[in-house]
Amino acid sequence: MNTLVTALAAAGPLAAGWSVHTVWLRRSLRSARRDPLTGLRTRDGFTRRANVLLKDPRAVVVLADVDHFKQINDQYGHAAGDALLKATADRLSHYVGRDGVAGRLGGDEFAAVVIDTHGTIADLLAVLHAVLARPADGMNPAVRTTVSLGWVGAADHPGEDLSGLLRRADEAMYAAKRARSGVRRAGLGRLLATWSGRRAGRRGTALAGPRDAA
Predict the structure, then answer these.
(1) Catalytic annotation, residues
(2) What is d(CA 54, CA 160) in angstroms, rounded to the nearest whole number?
């Protein structure tokens, strides 16, 4: 009996220490999946949640890219650029809500997956485009730009994974940027590679390729 009591007493501090370590690991993992500037999920955290949402055929994948972001940085400084990214992230997160997911893939590029419950995604994205173009609160009103959006419905391409859908949304986003149309839906036909120096292997669109293993 005394041996058992002694063993339990010795194990107490060890168990407490392991519990603290487990909590620390969980917090560290959550932090690693959050972008420190915007608070959005990083690529890994976004991918995990997005893959769950894509099980719903009403899921829509959206890619957003800030227009003329380099000029903003060059003209007004990186602090202004960071504030613009933060405002874009906050507005995108508000639009997505608790039932979707938004993430920062890198630089000035963001992605989201939402559930198009009422079949009104085109109208909602048009509103989002207008909201994203507003100057950030508390900033110089001159520090403003638009955000090009490309989107694709998961039901349009049954069986295609997140990486494939992001590539389609990316093509649509780039077409919107070139046409200055703001928002563009991905075509329903075959995915075409664009050899303009932007498409193939572009950072942020391929989530499971060799570039990510490095």
Answers:
(1) 108
(2) 10
